[in-house]
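Long-time lurker, first post. I've been practising inverse folding by hand and with some scripts of my own, and I keep getting stuck on stretches where the structure tokens seem ambiguous. Below is the full token string for one chain I'm working on. Before anyone asks, I'm not after the true native sequence, just a reasonable design that respects the backbone. If someone could post their per-position residues I'd love to compare against what I wrote down in my notebook.
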């Protein structure tokens, strides 16, 4: 049986999900049938080589299956996802997606490029939004995101998530530009972003993802 590359395998999974609905059993079925098994139960039995050594699990396929689960949950649990100018079926297996919403795009793309860091990055973002809102609330008239030293004197100083920092700075600038109540507009923007992140964390901080991510870490170690 000829081997499929990742894109071909992603296409197979995508087609199966489109036809039957996105379920773990559908994804597992595609993966196990590609390996020549009739069921996941048969696939659970390690294949033994002539030398008596168990074949290793293909980490890339396990990672791909988890990516599909995670991207689907990020999309479906993002507030007002129906207003995004994309549909999940169009972008599910695309490495880089521009959804017109930089916060959504940041985490949707991270689920492809750095899947093990998605949940920790969400938690870091939650901390940033909460503390930036506190910082703004303590100012008179809001923060000037273009002022020299703003980042250095804020919780953003220790953040290594450059794209996320860019989003915050841009959001603070855009939401308060021309507004009489700059401080109120900035606090509201950070509160909205905080709740968006909270919705994603509620979807991903579950026993299922904890188990899948731990298993993937073990296979990659």
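-- Answer (accepted) --
I ran through it position by position. Result:
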């Amino acid at each position: 049986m000829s081997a499929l590359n990742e894109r071909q395998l992603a296409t197979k999974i995508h087609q199966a999900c489109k036809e039957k609905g996105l379920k773990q059993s559908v994804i597992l079925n595609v993966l196990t049938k590609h390996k020549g098994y009739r069921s996941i139960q048969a696939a659970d039995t390690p294949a033994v080589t002539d030398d008596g050594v168990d074949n290793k699990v293909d980490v890339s396929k396990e990672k791909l299956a988890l990516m599909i689960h995670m991207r689907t949950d990020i999309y479906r649990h993002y507030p007002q996802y129906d207003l995004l100018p994309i549909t999940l079926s169009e972008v599910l297996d695309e490495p880089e997606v521009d959804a017109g919403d930089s916060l959504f795009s940041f985490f949707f793309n991270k689920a492809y490029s750095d899947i093990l860091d998605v949940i920790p990055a969400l938690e870091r973002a939650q901390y940033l939004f909460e503390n930036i809102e506190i910082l703004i609330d303590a100012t008179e008239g809001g923060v000037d995101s273009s002022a020299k030293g703003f980042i250095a004197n804020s919780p953003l100083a220790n953040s290594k998530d450059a794209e996320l920092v860019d989003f915050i700075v841009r959001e603070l600038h855009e939401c308060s530009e021309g507004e009489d109540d700059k401080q109120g507009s900035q606090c509201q923007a950070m509160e909205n972003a905080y709740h968006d992140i909270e919705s994603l964390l509620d979807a991903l901080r579950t026993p299922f993802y904890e188990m899948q991510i731990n298993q993937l870490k073990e296979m990659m170690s």
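A couple of notes from the structure itself: Residues 39-56 have pLDDT under 50 and may be disordered. The chain is about 60% helix and 0% strand. Happy to go over any region you disagree with.
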